[in-house]
Amino acid sequence: MKVNKELMKGSTVTLILSLLSRKEMYGYEMVKGIETSSGGVFSFKEGTLYPILHTLEAEGYVEAYWMDEGARKRKYYRLTDEGRMHLEQKQKEWKLFRTTVDRVIGEGGA
């Protein structure tokens, strides 16, 4: 089952920052990381990912650098200190949102 794209919109930044908090990654690696970690429920296209990464870079939450890997150059992204603080805020926000939705659904259910 796929998740509605509207539900995904509010969490993409948190997902990307969370991945980058674990290790520095290049774009396709992030796409695969999200897909694998979510058991295939979440899937991003690279065309969706890169505009988000560019915005995060402009906001100072991530920084990019090029690395040679054999004959290929890859653009890697890493979290900045400001990005770590932003991620902490987004995680707190998500926790509040999740517990509140769970509370409402639980109260409104059977």
Automatic annotation (TrEMBL):
InterPro entries referenced in this protein's UniProt entry, alphabetically: Tscrpt_reg_PadR_N, WH-like_DNA-bd_sf, WH_DNA-bd_sf
Domain Transcription regulator PadR N-terminal residues, every copy: 16-88
Matching Pfam families: PadR
Protein's name according to its UniProt entry: PadR family transcriptional regulator
Organism ancestry: Bacteria, Bacillati, Bacillota, Bacilli, Bacillales
